[in-house]
Specification:
354 residues; alpha+beta; BirA Bifunctional Protein, domain 2; 2 domains
Length: 354
């Protein structure tokens, strides 16, 4: 199938290089515009008490919004993120995950009077740095947002008006009395049919005034369209899972990726706090998916180890053995438990077929 962007899919071994090239291009672009870089924090840091894990760079930007002191012309960052909505569907065999739990987010924060400049900057980045032509870029905006509409006209991009429900154009910030109004940036699908959202331009405000402009982009969703990937997880691929059931494979990949990231941050699945309980859900799913896939513990250990070595080359910290020990611990607990939960019964039945 012809890719409208003229690119071929990259191999799993090249995925990390392409992802880092995109992020590096973003950093260089905004650095050259004299924006200040904000360094990333741990996903499980607890820096933002309103969320269990950092799910967007806005968590790191919140102090600037609260203080009203945003450095001129703005700040930018790359922030690794985890959104755990997939945990609600890990054990539902008919649910196919469109998104992965883990993703690197890239974003910008600037002062509210710079709306037109931020529009221009982000579309210059897409067109000049990423070589995406205007015909393949779409802005989705609501007609109630006159300021966003005016900025769209200022940039001259193709605009789609009122095509979604109002909630689609509204943003929760996680700060009482502060919210966002957004338009969405979409890229034409690599097949040429339709558009997929890759990010937002957000006006952040309270009842009195606008207090900031945020740009939020998903690096993996951009690469998915530019290179015609089958799934965003192909940007952080897990090799060695040769499964006919694509739904199980994608959820298995998600659990391996997310578990590895969180274990590497020092999180443990057996402590009595909400972050650890979520990690335990991913560990339980690793047991379930390995059973559904007929993998031995040793085979799964090799797959996780290979993923970790490729994604974190040169690291002296390896957690694959710790993950495997955690899987063995939950499996032993399930087999001995007199009153297992519904999910534990599901895992136990799957383990019986190995």
């Amino acid at each position: 199938m012809i890719n409208v962007y003229g690119n071929e899919k990259f191999s799993p071994d090249m995925a990390k290089k392409y992802l880092e090239m995109l992020i590096s291009s973003f950093r260089n672009y905004y650095s050259n515009l004299d924006y200040k870089e904000k360094l990333p924090i741990l996903i499980s840091s607890g820096f933002d008490p309103t969320v269990r894990f950092i799910g967007s760079h806005i968590s790191v930007f919140k102090p600037y919004l609260i203080s009203g002191e945003i450095p001129f012309p703005g700040i930018y960052m790359r922030q690794d993120c985890i959104r755990t909505r997939n945990t609600n569907y890990l054990f539902k065999d008919d649910y196919y995950p469109t998104w992965g739990s883990y993703f690197p987010s890239i974003g910008v924060l600037s002062s509210p009077e710079r709306l037109n400049e931020e529009y221009k900057n982000i579309f210059d980045f897409l067109k000049k740095e990423l070589k995406i032509c205007s015909d393949n870029i779409l802005i989705r905006v609501n007609s109630l947002d006159n300021d966003l509409m005016s900025a769209c006209n200022y940039c001259g991009e193709f605009v789609e008006i009122d095509s979604r429900n109002l909630d689609y154009y509204r943003h929760k910030i996680g700060i009482k009395g502060i919210w966002g109004r957004n338009c969405n940036i979409a890229l034409r699908n690599s097949t040429g049919n339709g558009f997929s959202d890759i990010g937002n331009i957000i006006i952040i405000e309270n009842e009195e005034k606008m207090i900031g402009i945020e740009i939020a982009l998903g690096s993996t969703v951009i690469l998915k369209e530019l290179y015609g990937l089958d799934h965003v997880q192909d940007c952080t691929p897990v090799s060695g899972l040769s499964l006919e059931n694509n739904t199980i494979r994608r959820k298995f990949e998600d659990s391996i990726i997310t578990s590895t990231i969180l274990f590497r941050e020092g999180l443990k699945p057996f402590k009595n706090n909400s972050r650890s309980r979520i990690l335990k859900q991913y560990v339980l799913s690793l047991s379930y998916f390995r059973a559904k896939s007929g993998l031995s513990i040793n085979e799964l250990s090799k797959i996780i180890s290979n993923y970790e070595e490729r994604e974190f080359p040169g690291s002296i910290q390896h957690v694959s053995e710790i993950i495997i020990r955690s899987i063995e611990e939950v499996e032993n607990d399930i087999l001995l438990k007199k009153n297992p939960t519904k999910i534990e019964i599901q895992i136990k039945k799957a383990l019986e077929y190995i």
